[in-house]
Design a protein that fits this description.
CATH topology: Spore Coat Polysaccharide Biosynthesis Protein SpsA, Chain A
Strand content: 15-25%
Distance between the termini: 81 Å
Length: about 250
Amino acid sequence: MPLDDPRVSVIMSVYNGERFLPNSVVSILSQSFKDFEFIIVDDCSNDGTAEMLRSIDDPRIKLIINELNLGLTRSLNKAAQTARGTYLARMDADDISLSHRFETQVAYLDNNPECAVVGSCYFIIDEHDQIIHRIGVLTDDASIKEGLPQQNWFGHGSVMMRREAFQAVGGYDNSFKYSQDYDLWLRMSERFTLANLEECLYCWRDNSAGISRKKQEEQRQYAARAVEGAIQRSAARILPIVSAITPACSPEA
């Protein structure tokens, strides 16, 4: 039977991910923190992904099969809509979470109730699970908010966030095919405290067969759109304040 009121809801979307998916799933099911549900959306895969997921006997897994390919953004929102946990944890289908990741992030959010999002530094791994290098990120709220307009300082899959905060900003914007996480962090930064942990809790896979140059250019375009949206929202917040404190100018006689 499914867990009642889990502390954490893990959300993952996968499309044709059978090669790396087993290790990814095992890294979640092997977490030292056990009180979670694992919501996996199979986004209309045509390889052995669905069969592999159906073969796993673990009551924490909730499998959703898309009849049509919806893409990552819509699939993640679909998973989040079914989530029951206090916290949402992201996970990507070809990556690996260290075994104490959830335990560490839950403790941080429990001890820092003002914080809505916590990610971590992370390792880059190759196709054979070997560490290539370490990625450091900004950690404190002030630095992150200052740095976000220049670049995304969160490893998407490494993040755990408060579900209520995620819902308060409307979740992922379905109009973003890529950089949906960057847009989300920018919007959440306008209302909430954000953090990253110095410790590496996540392994992001550098898959040479992954994103093409065309998709990289699309990512850059969506990232620029996310920043432009943040600039426009900032201007919209500032303009009423400026108008209120600026005296009306009388025409010269």
